[in-house]
Amino acid sequence: MALQEALTNPSLSEDELQRYHTEWVRLAHRITDVQLLDNDRLTVILSRATGLIRLIDYNTGFAFNIDLRRSGGHFDWSPMSVEDTSIIKQILHPGRHIDCDSWYDIGVWGSFATHRGGILEIDGQFITVGFHLRPHGTVIGDAEPGSPLRNPPESNGIDGRAPPGGWTLGGHMCLYVSNSTGGTEGLQDVAHDVYDLFN
Questions:
Q1: For FRET with 4, which of 11, 22, 35, 73 sits at 20 to 30 Å CA-CA?
Q2: What are phi and psi of 95, to 5 degrees?
């Protein structure tokens, strides 16, 4: 059965659809072997990275470049460019106007943005992760010059409530691997779940 036909076949079970979807993501991004790593191993890989770091969203298959840094028991990341930010917003609000000057409707994202499975691509290695798309705090790393990703000079970032007159787009998101800890419980389990889907 062709992949496109399989994904639209109403007689397939949830498990069969999941297998076809996983294969589609694997083929679309040329994913080879996936790894389930702990914080320390990913930190070593990050320290040796020579190229862009790409995060693939498992549910949509969309991918975008990120700046990723260790932050205590897990990792923090920010999108690298306006284009990467637009991809994230398309995941959150399919078909809506993409406004790169603010995190549109941040207050209503809820669990849809909170627990997502993904695959990190770093120098040809594929690592399963759990992450969220809920910007908070301050931007980390080095966003592209001219990108709207910058921290508002008058605050420490964003907290889900727009100040009068709006805010300058800012904030980072969190990413977890097999043994990560922090404020978004369950994301390490998502990393395990994605690993199981690919193996």
A1: 35
A2: 80, -5
Model's pTM, two decimal places?
0.77
DSSP 158: B
- Per DSSP bridges, beta strands 53-57 and 116-122 are antiparallel
Enclosing H/E stretch for 68: strand 63-71
pLDDT band of 90, cuts 50, 70, 90 = confident
CA distance 146 to 172: 18
**Exposure class string for 28-45: b at 16+ Cβ within 10 A, else e:** eeebeebbbbebeebeeb
Q: Would you call 77 helix, strand, or coil by DSSP? A: strand
Contact 197, 134 (CB under 8 A): no
Torsion of CA 84, 89, 95, 101, to 10 degrees: -90
